[in-house]
């Protein structure tokens, strides 16, 4: 191979760095799914803790995972981790209070 092919056929003056579109100019680009799942996870966690419903606690864990998976790195991680820990504590407490297997909600 020649030295000319090693550098590649790039045009250095034509390279433009990618900038993601800002959500300030277009608010429809922001995805509300992590926020909704975070709220649902907290509601189901509280239902699992207060009402001792195991299926609510498991749904809270599921919602927390979805919220974590769909979140951006720039979002507040403290709220997400507190929601996740609340859902885990709901599962642990519901099984500590009643170690029987989960019964179906119907």
What can you tell me about this protein's structure?
- The chain is mainly alpha-helical and 106 residues long.
- It is built from four helices and no strands.
- The chain has helices at 3-7, 33-51, 54-70, 77-97.
Report the structural category: mainly alpha
- Rg from alpha-carbon coordinates: 23 Å
Mean pLDDT, to the nearest integer, reads 84
| Share of residues in helices | 55-70%
Rough shape?
elongated
The secondary-structure element order is HHHH
Measured between the Cα atoms of the first and last residue, the distance is 71 Å
Share of residues in strands: under 5%
The tally of helices reads 4
DSSP strand tally: 0
Largest sheet: none
Looking at the chains present, what oligomeric state does this protein adopt?
Answer: single chain
Q: Ranges with pLDDT <50 over ≥5 residues?
A: none
Characteristic terms for this protein:
mainly alpha; 0% strand; membrane; protein folding chaperone
Summarize the SSE layout with pairings:
Elements: H1 3-7, H2 33-51, H3 54-70, H4 77-97
Helix pairs in contact: 2-3, 2-4, 3-4
Main location: membrane
Protein name: PAT complex subunit Asterix
GO molecular function: protein folding chaperone
Concise structural overview:
The protein is mainly α. The protein is built from four helices and no strands.
């Amino acid at each position: 191979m020649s030295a000319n092919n090693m550098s590649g056929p790039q045009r250095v003056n034509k390279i433009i760095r990618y900038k993601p579109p800002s959500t300030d100019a277009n608010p429809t680009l922001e995805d509300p799914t992590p926020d909704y799942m975070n709220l649902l996870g907290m509601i189901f966690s509280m239902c699992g803790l207060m009402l001792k419903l195991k299926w609510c606690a498991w749904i809270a864990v599921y919602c927390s995972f979805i919220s974590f998976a769909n979140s951006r790195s720039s979002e507040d991680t403290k709220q997400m981790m507190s929601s996740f820990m609340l859902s885990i504590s709901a599962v642990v407490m519901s099984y500590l209070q009643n170690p029987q297997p989960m019964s179906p909600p119907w």
